[in-house]
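Contributing new records

If you add data, match the layout below exactly. Sequence lines come first and carry their own label; structure lines follow with theirs. Keep one chain per record. Anything else will be rejected by the validation script.
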Amino acid sequence: RHPEQKKILEEGTTKVVLADIEKIRKERESSGDAALFYDIPLLFETGSEDDYDAVWVVTADYEIRKNRVMARDGIDPSIIDLIMDSQDGEEKKVQLADHVIYNNGTLDELRESVDAVLRSYGLI
């Protein structure tokens, strides 16, 4: 409803989050970790995807994502539609990602999919 205010809020929040991420990255890299994963929902919107060695997108069908948010947060479905419609589409994220994991099934199926990608990097 207030796109200019939303933009200001997102820009301020994004700057703080990106600064925190950089601090964590430096700390973890100096400790010799084999891999470091970040959960950055607005990665492509910030244009910082090139700052990472690889980008994985974990996604699910629209209705599954919507139902999960409703179950988790108790938000009205029409509000969820507004939020999801204001974000970049999943199709764009899927196209830009190095790896895509579809999370339409069980938690065990999700773990198997993550393990498959980790194996492709020789991390497990």
